[in-house]
Design a protein that fits this description.
CATH superfamily of the largest domain in chain B: Chloramphenicol acetyltransferase-like domain
CATH class of the largest domain in chain B: Alpha Beta
Strand content of chain A: 15-25%
Largest interface: A-B, 10 and 12 residues
Number of helices of chain B: 7
CATH topology of the largest domain in chain A: Rossmann fold
Radius of gyration of chain A: 19 Å
Order of helices and strands of chain B: EEEEEEEEHHHEHHEEEEEEHEEEEH
Shape of chain B: elongated
Strand content of chain B: 15-25%
Number of helices of chain A: 12
Number of domains of chain B: 3
Low-confidence stretches of chain B: 84-136, 183-203
CATH topology of the largest domain in chain B: Chloramphenicol Acetyltransferase
Order of helices and strands of chain A: EHEHEHEHHEHEHEEEEHEEHEHEHH
Number of domains of chain A: 2
Structural class of chain B: alpha+beta
Number of strands of chain A: 14
CATH architecture of the largest domain in chain B: 2-Layer Sandwich
Largest sheet of chain A: 7 strands, mixed
Structural class of chain A: alpha/beta
Mean pLDDT of chain B: 79
Number of strands of chain B: 19
Oligomer: heterodimer
Low-confidence stretches of chain A: none
Helix content of chain B: 10-25%
CATH class of the largest domain in chain A: Alpha Beta
Radius of gyration of chain B: 26 Å
Shape of chain A: globular
CATH superfamily of the largest domain in chain A: Thiamin diphosphate (ThDP)-binding fold, Pyr/PP domains
CATH architecture of the largest domain in chain A: 3-Layer(aba) Sandwich
């Protein structure tokens, strides 16, 4: 057991899969000589050589398109978006090609498109986004958003081994802040399975990614006030773990859905809808969403802080809901 | 002008009654003669109709509390009328001259759920205007609170809400249910009707909250009485059981032949009257079956009053067919049907459940091959009827398929020996098996 950071967990996951399976390779902007903008792919060029660690031109569409082509002839490419914000350049390749190949031809496209998402590091509107909602409405895709080092490693391995396209949204704020002891042996975290990070009786917070930590902080503060909060980390948002969502909703009867993607049309709306549809009779209050307002992510640090859901915001809304 | 609602007198010997359940909450509209509350007395349970149309302004006697007859238990008036503004102070003594009190209402037919109440003949009071369509006192709750309330038979308006704006929360109703089931109902002051303790919950499958290992629920009044009576009976009489197999072939033929005729009389002919008739024959030949013990004396009874056990949603009651020995098949069928229907719709009068000398219980209704019932004290015997099933039987060294029933007799061995019981059952069997033409 060694203490591993979230970012190293991603690298180790890819590394181990590349060692195990020759069809796995990586491609992206500056992933080779430079080792990636955040150093996720550091050392890989030396280890696996230029055939399996490919520096590409600055064209996300080309990166994903090439990955799809390779996947169709039997490879398992892992494509990096230098910042996940740029994934929109590859939108057509992902939604019209990768996501639909199996449906049209029975041809699976086992690609992983990964990259740093999220704010909190003063990256401004083009380097802080959470674009999962754009893809949430696309049948044929899977979307994972790990929050811990264990899940980061377990989910990148599951994504690489998955027979269909997986979007892997890692959170840059967690890269070096989150670390834990990881088991030495090989493990995966199943896609589509949520996990309870904290058990509670009074109220549930359903969340994922970096917001898991805000939810846990809020839960600590609320416990001091006698409010017992349960925190469900979705880990995957496509497919959603509906069973886990309904179980916690039925248990506590009061639910907050929290995410860092902006409010309108965010994945939280779907979670809320499922609960309203399938657990209505178990509700003891309105289902509350907490998410950033519908604006671009501000560059100004105080504005960004105001934009992102903070622990105190969650505590306030949870107190209100608990008292409802 | 508010109208008092009083605890009615349900029978001559009855001095008090228990409010089992308010069917309306404070602030709810109620029509005249619409079932307003359920009571339980020594003898029967009944739904009591509202004496007037209007809004239930006050509940003065909470669920679970026993009061003397004629006690004011609630008040009905117009929406917005102040509580207790015009009516006399609630007290145990009725105030006949003050408010226009209707006479003690008689129970009206009201099946627990669907069937509308049949109005009793209107007393002299002028029909009050229906309450204006103002909103009833709306109790704020939530889907989960409504669901829990329905499952536990709780009136949400009686639960004190601690949520925003007095909303009843899930925690509130769970606390309410837990406190109601873990403590005996505290006596509430008549003037403070709000958070009344929960009275007996109906027998519904227990709902276990997550992590909960057991649910405690107080027995209903009926359940307590059944429990007492059963223990007393087993304690009093050494029970012995004898079981006979009876071929129902001839009864089936007779019933088929008579069904039409009975239908014309508006009566559905079941097998029960045939069993009653056969038992009466048996009793005539062996009167010990229709007897009772008084200390060291045996009381033989000339009249045969046959109790018929009727299963209810949450218990059991045994109305009695009086003078069954003087009735023909049609009379037995009619009386049994009437008693059964009134038992299920809570309209039995105390007289209906008294004076039985022998009881029949149909365990076959629920699929039992036969049962070993407990004697309905102070009677000496009870007969159980099993389910009638086609079985292969040997007749004249050939195998035939016949509708077979098992009759069980539980009897008090202090006064009835096995031989008597078998002789009695032999007559019953003979009567049931006698050729249809005979």
């Amino acid at each position: 057991m060694a203490v591993t950071t979230y970012i190293d967990a991603i690298r180790e996951g890819i590394w181990e899969e590349m060692e195990k399976d020759e069809s796995v390779f990586i491609l992206g902007e500056d992933v080779g000589i430079y080792g990636g903008a955040f150093k996720v792919t550091k050392g890989m060029l030396d280890k696996f050589g230029p055939m399996r660690v490919i520096d590409t031109p600055i064209s996300e569409s080309a990166i994903v398109g090439a990955a799809i082509g390779a996947a169709l002839v039997g490879m398992r490419p892992v494509a990096e978006m230098q910042f996940i914000d740029f994934i929109s350049c590859a939108f057509d390749q992902i939604v019209n090609f990768a996501a639909k190949c199996r449906y049209r031809w029975g041809a699976g496209v086992p690609i992983v498109v990964r990259g740093p998402s999220g704010g909190g590091v003063h990256g401004g509107p083009f380097h802080s986004q959470n674009p999962e909602a754009y893809f949430f409405n696309v049948p044929g895709l899977k979307i994972v958003c790990p929050s811990t080092a264990y899940d980061a490693k377990g989910l990148i391995k599951a994504a690489i081994r998955d027979p269909d396209p997986v979007l892997y949204f890692e959170h840059k704020y967690l890269y070096r802040r989150i670390k834990e002891d990881l088991p030495a042996e090989d493990f995966v975290v199943p896609i589509g399975k949520a996990i309870l990070r904290r058990e509670g009786e009074d109220l549930s917070i359903i969340t994922y990614g970096a917001m898991v930590y805000k939810a846990l902080e809020a839960a600590e503060a609320l416990a001091q006030m006698g409010i017992d909060v349960e925190v469900l980390d979705l880990r995957s948002i496509l497919p959603l773990d509906e069973e886990a969502i309904l179980t916690t909703a039925k248990k506590t009867s009061k639910v907050i859905v929290l995410h860092e993607a902006t409010l309108t049309g965010g994945p939280g709306g779907e979670v809320v809808a499922r609960i309203a549809e399938k657990a209505f009779e178990y509700l003891d209050g309105p289902i509350v969403r907490i998410a950033p307002p519908d604006t671009p992510v501000p560059y100004s640090p105080p504005l960004e802080e105001a934009f992102l859901p903070q622990t105190k915001d969650i505590v306030e809304k949870a107190k209100k809901l608990a008292a409802y | 002008m508010a109208v008092d609602v009083i605890m009615p007198q349900m029978g001559e010997s009855i001095a008090e009654g228990t409010i089992v359940k308010w069917l309306k909450g404070v602030g709810e509209n109620v029509d005249r003669d619409e079932p307003l509350f359920e009571i339980s007395t020594d003898k029967v349970d009944a739904e009591i109709p509202s004496p007037s149309a209007g809004v239930l302004l006050e509940i003065l006697v909470p669920e679970g509390k026993t009061v003397e007859i004629n006690t004011v238990v609630g008040r009905i008036g117009q929406a917005g009328e102040a509580r207790g503004a015009t009516a006399p102070k609630p007290s145990a003594a009725p105030a006949p001259s003050a408010a226009p009190v209707t006479p003690a209402p008689r129970p009206v037919p009201a099946t627990p759920v669907a069937a509308p109440a049949t109005p009793t003949p209107a007393p002299t009071q002028p029909a009050p205007q229906p309450a204006p369509q103002s909103a009833p006192a709306y109790v704020r709750s939530s889907p989960v609170v409504q669901k829990i309330a329905a499952e536990h038979g709780v009136d949400v308006s009686l639960v004190e809400g601690t949520g925003e704006g007095g909303r009843v929360t899930k925690k509130d109703i769970m606390t309410y249910i837990e406190s109601a089931s873990s403590s005996t109902p505290p006596v509430t002051q008549p003037a403070a009707p709000a958070p009344a303790p929960k009275a007996p919950a109906p027998a519904k499958p227990a709902v276990f909250a997550s992590g909960q290992e057991e649910v405690r629920e107080p027995m209903s009044i009926m359940r307590k009485k059944i429990a007492e009576h059963m223990v007393m009976s087993k304690h009093t009489s050494p029970h012995v059981y004898t079981i006979f197999e009876v071929d129902m072939n001839e009864v089936v033929k007779r019933r088929d032949a008579m069904k039409r005729e009975f239908e014309a009389e508006g009566v559905k002919l079941t097998f029960l009257p045939f069993f009653i008739e056969a038992c009466i024959r048996g009793i005539k030949e062996f009167p010990i079956i229709n007897s009772a013990v008084d200390g060291e004396t045996i009381i033989y009874k000339k009249t045969v009053n046959v109790g018929i056990a009727v299963a209810l949603e949450n218990g059991l009651i045994v109305p009695v067919i009086k003078h069954a020995d003087q009735m023909n098949l049609l009379g037995l069928a009619k009386t049994a049907a009437d008693l059964g229907e009134r038992a299920r719709s809570k309209r039995l009068m105390p007289d209906d459940v008294q004076g039985g000398t022998f009881t029949i219980t149909n365990v076959g209704v629920f699929g039992g091959t036969f049962g070993l019932p407990i004697i309905n004290q102070p009677q000496a015997a009870i007969m159980g009827i099993g389910t009638i099933t086609k079985r292969p039987v040997v007749i004249d060294d050939a195998i035939a398929i016949r509708p077979i029933v098992y009759l069980s007799l539980s009897y008090d061995h202090r006064i009835i020996d096995g031989a008597d019981a078998a002789r009695f059952l032999t007559v019953v069997k003979r009567e049931l098996e006698k050729p249809a033409g005979a």
